[in-house]
Amino acid sequence: MSRAKDLAKKNALRARRKRRVRGSIFGTAEKPRVTIFKSNKYLSAQAVNDVEGVTLAAVSSQTMGLKVSKENAVKVAAQFAENLKSAGIETVVFDRNGYLYHGVVAAFADALRENGIKL
């Protein structure tokens, strides 16, 4: 199988997981949805109020000057927890955005919990 076909299959499987997970997750102003995006270089996250379609808080490793890794995911999560607390948010719903709960995604979620955000 060629690399292009492998990549297309990988993206299609992630899209299916994303649709399946998003069918049961919904964010409100009191308990927003935290969605994560990771590329090969960077990691970003945002808290979304799905009722109004508004982003309440956001963070990106690119603006912090960090590449994507488990260690840097912990730093990004610490900054994001500060942003959430300054916005008055203590509990959130975690949307892994179709990614497997492993590696960088799991490190980010665990770091959020360690910084006082309830998932």
TrEMBL record:
The keyword Cell membrane does not apply. Keywords: Ribonucleoprotein, Ribosomal protein, RNA-binding, rRNA-binding. Gene3D superfamilies: 3.30.420.100. This is one of the proteins that bind and probably mediate the attachment of the 5S RNA into the large ribosomal subunit, where it forms part of the central protuberance. InterPro entries: Ribosomal_L18, Ribosomal_uL18_bac-type, Ribosomal_uL18_bac/plant/anim. Belongs to the universal ribosomal protein uL18 family. It comes from the Bacteria. It comes from Arcobacter roscoffensis. PANTHER family: 39S RIBOSOMAL PROTEIN L18, MITOCHONDRIAL, LARGE RIBOSOMAL SUBUNIT PROTEIN UL18M. One of its GO terms (cellular component) is ribosome. Part of the 50S ribosomal subunit; part of the 5S rRNA/L5/L18/L25 subcomplex. Contacts the 5S and 23S rRNAs. This is Large ribosomal subunit protein uL18.
